[in-house]
Amino acid sequence: MSLELHDITLTYPDGDGRLTALDQVTLAVPAGTLTALVGPSGSGKSSLLAVAATLVTPDSGTVAVDGVTTTGLSRGELAALRRRSIGTVFQQPNLLPSLTAVEQLQVMAHLDGRSPTAARPRALELLAAVGLADLAGRRPHQLSGGQRQRVNIARALVNDPKVLLVDEPTSALDHERGAAVLDLITRLTHRQATATVLVTHDRTHLTTADRFVEVHDGRLTAGVPVAGG
Fold this sequence. Notes:
Distance between the termini: 17 Å
Largest sheet: 6 strands, mixed
Helix content: 25-40%
Domain ABC transporter: 3-226
CATH architecture of the domain at 3-92 and 160-225: 3-Layer(aba) Sandwich
Radius of gyration: 17 Å
GO cellular component, one term: plasma membrane
Shape: globular
CATH superfamily of the domain at 3-92 and 160-225: P-loop containing nucleotide triphosphate hydrolases
Organism: Saccharothrix espanaensis (strain ATCC 51144 / DSM 44229 / JCM 9112 / NBRC 15066 / NRRL 15764)
CATH class of the domain at 3-92 and 160-225: Alpha Beta
Order of helices and strands: EEEHEEHEHHHEHEEE
Pfam families: ABC_tran (PF00005)
Structural class: alpha/beta
Strand content: 25-35%
GO molecular function: ATP binding; ATP hydrolysis activity; transmembrane transporter activity
Number of helices: 6
Number of strands: 10
Strand order of the largest sheet: 6-7-8-3-9-10
């Protein structure tokens, strides 16, 4: 397993009490598979993704990323783990407007202490993998919404993460472009052997996943295969 959450409980302050966002959640995502999380707004999907990304520390339970248990790690150690082992695709690409597509990827290598120049071949390889080989020199304003999201996906993969966390990647795209982006995420999951978790409200996206898990009131319903699994 590349991602394991065991018996996770997460609460937030709520007036004089506590609001339970996740209630004894256990989830294991093997390498090279895509698990879709579905459920209504407020069900706990985003909280689960934040815990998996080590951005939020749960009240109890354990998170393991590529065999590394995060309990007891310092802030610096968690930041290093995120840089090297976790890729995140946000709803909005949030690309840096002054950088070209390839530079968006190179800067991630720089943040990890590696030479942007040395990272350029890998960056170009990933842009080719997402169908943007001819647009590596364009800046965000010269790209369509779907193309910007593809750069976002490539950027998340530039450090070869073991875990890929994807939050509603098609919310700003039409159906055709959204379907293409999800197909791309599925193919890259298998090719890069990442443990991928995809949060979505759209059940038509489930055909791209290896299984889906329902989230309701902070609890999970057992996942089942949906695409030939």
